[in-house]
Amino acid sequence: MRFLHTADWHIGKKLHGYDLLEEQRHAFQQILAIAKEEAVDGIVIAGDLYDRSVPAVEAVETFNDMMIQMNLIDKYPVFAISGNHDSSTRLETGGPWFSYLNFHLATRLEQAFQPVEFMDTQFFLLPYFEPIAARLHFEMDEIRTIDQAMSVVIEEMKKKFDPEKSHVLVSHFFVAGSEKTESETKLTVGGLDTVPLSYLEDFDYVALGHLHGKNALNGKNARYSGSPLKFSLSEMNQEKGVWIVDTDKNTTIFRFRELQPLRDIKQLQGSFSELTDQTFYENLNRNDYIHIQLTDRAVISNMMNRLRQVYPRIIGVERLYGRDNPINKNSVKPSLKKLAPLELVEQFFEEVTHEKLTSQQVKWVEDSLKSIHQEERGE
Length: 379
Known about the structure:
Blueprint: E1 2-6, E2 14-15, E3 18-19, H1 21-38, E4 42-46, H2 57-73, E5 78-81, H3 88-91, H4 95-98, E6 103-106, E7 116-118, E8 121-126, H5 131-138, H6 146-158, E9 166-172, E10 205-209, E11 222-224, E12 241-247, E13 252-258, E14 265-270, H7 272-275, H8 278-281, E15 289-294, H9 303-310, E16 314-319, H10 341-353, H11 359-376
Parallel strand pairs: 1-4, 4-5, 5-6, 8-9, 9-10, 10-11, 14-15, 15-16
Antiparallel strand pairs: 1-12, 2-3, 7-8, 12-13
Helix pairs in contact: 1-2, 5-6, 10-11
């Protein structure tokens, strides 16, 4: 059998306030194109279909459109699980009849012990779970960590192995030896972020989700697909894509197919005058998501607005060498407790944005503070 392995779609995720639905639809179309080009027999999605347990309406509509295209129109069997960002309860709505359309979605631990048999392969769909789920399922009070839980879970799965078929595990955890980036939720409660790689060695292939880089783990039979998009600056240099996996009962071969982003994440460094000089940016894709490292020390008037006129999707500005303090260095900064509310707001705003409040913004703050004061006095 040949299948495509993807994960961590995080439909509905925002990047520093920017909506990524257009980028996510663009990546999905590339995934479908690769599936058709490679003539895959099915598609695996290893968790984190959504970015939030209660996704926005637009995110749900986008995901529904994707599944209609993939499963109903293009007729690809789908083997999917819930991840730590998904609400298993909400996600499983409709699950019982999805399977009649070859859309196999596992959101509960017990579903992992009934493999989905397709062609020459058994798919064990193990959604994200916490140790208490295994403790209750197996009625074993000694299960307190994911290590202890997975030891029992894997042994239970192996009882269902058909020796005439290949065995594929689809799961969503942090496997020992993997590397994380800042956009991935750290799981630490109860030792939840460690699954020993040795537990997975009896599977022909382990399709993992949760970590966003394809090189986070290089097990001989286990891979993270990584996310289809870059979700943080720390993923800036990651190659994004999907795995194409070929299985039979004797061997497993997998290879990576790269995706091209609609808008990339880039980091630019230079002085304000350099970065806003047309000769510097004329050959750049200024619609990319840009993180700027400024080398200036001086205060720059209306800096963010002027930068956004050139780079409309700025995700951060960093002063590499600090900023000159226009206040006399010998003057003593007053205690925050002695500052009036408006002064506190002005100081905070300037420290965060490197700009001063405009007269209109000052008026808004004053009106808001007045309203709060009146509410406190019961007026």
